[in-house]
Amino acid sequence: MTLLVISPDYASHLLPLATLATAWRDAGERVVVATGPATAPIVREFGLERLDLPLGRGSNARVISADEQPKDESASLRGFFDATRRGMVETLRYQASERLTDLMWDPVTVGRRVLAAVEEVRPTAILVDHLAFSARVALQTAGIAYGDVVLGHPSALPVAGEVYGFPPFWPTSFTPDAAALDELRALCHDVSARFTAEWNRAAVALDPAATPTADAFAEHGATVLYNYPAELAAGDGRLLPPHAFLGSTRRTESPDDEVDRWIAAGGDYAYVSFGSFLSVRGDVLARVAQALRSIGLRAAIATGSTPPAELGPIPADWLVRDYLPQVRLLGRARLTVTHGGNNSVTEAFGQGVPLLVLPFSTDQFAGAEAVERAGAGLALAPNTATVDELAEALRAVRDLPAPGRALLDGAAASQAERGGPRIAYELLTTPSADPTPTS
Question: How confident is the model at residue 215 (pLDDT cuts 50, 70, 90)?
Answer without folding.
Answer: very high
